[in-house]
Amino acid sequence: MPDWLAYVNDHLGRLPLSETESLQVREELAAHLEDNYLSLRAQGVSELDAARLVCERVPSWQELHRDILAAKSEAFMQNRVTQLWIPGLVTLFGSAGLLAIFEIAGLRPLVIRPHDPYSFVLYFPWLFTLPLFGALGAYLSLRARAHGLAVHCAALFPALVMAAALLALLLVVLILRDYGALRVVATGFAVFMLNWFFLPGFFLFMGDLLLQLVMKRRGVAS
Amino acid sequence: MVSNELKRGTAELAILSVLERQPLHGYEISRRIEHDSGGALRFTLAALYPLLYRMENRGWVRGEWETSDSGRRRRCYKLLPRGRKMLAPLRAQWADLFRAMRRVARVNHA
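^ inputs. structure came back:
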């Protein structure tokens, strides 16, 4: 009997998928061809004719390659939405909403060096709520079967958005060649990163880690 | 000309219908559809697997590897509750389409 897996490997080309997924697709297609071949043989078709007929069943391997990738990338996009964007946005809007409520309620942050333009602003009541949001982001992401980096990104989403916003601001200032503004932004960079990236990120990450630890203990996390 | 959407709709309904009866692997799905349609519907490997992967993404079916007694590994597809839920509206849509075509084109059952 022909080696159908080798035949598929020769004709399908490289699939830009994970190794496991790519192998599963190849194995599945090879199994289909093999079943087809065995069925023809059982009907009395000669080995040569059966192999030829089976090969003719795939008129264009290029088209099959393209269609499989389209179907798989649809899944990739769907996964990105459910595993990263939705949990991330829930975490972002939840934490930002709570900060706004704290502000309206009159809870003031602890400001170190208040007369310095680059003062440290520590929203302690809010920072202590961030592990909950980090855990929520991680939970939603894990529930959508995410793993690894995607889960951490969903949990740390608010901090990542702030870091991205500052970097974008730096970029705009560089493009506009506004060196006065660049000096202000660059000097405040470290302070801003501490206030809005490292500190919130730390508290979000604590929630993320605790949640994953609890879920592992309960045998939920994969 | 039959649109791709219509073709895909036919294929989806056919696959869901055969899986409603029992879990099957890819080749069996194509054989069953061909047999049940009296040879009128034929699925090539190129048409079947991209569609199965799409249906799996949507949570309509789930493929699981099984090893037969002879040691051959096959990915067996099972209908999921979400897929089962899709069957009734798909069948209703097709019934509506056939009724409409009978009226317009005066197509009758043989």
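The CA atoms of residues 66 and 74 of chain B lie 5 Å apart. Chain B has four helices and three strands.
thumbs up if we can close this ticket
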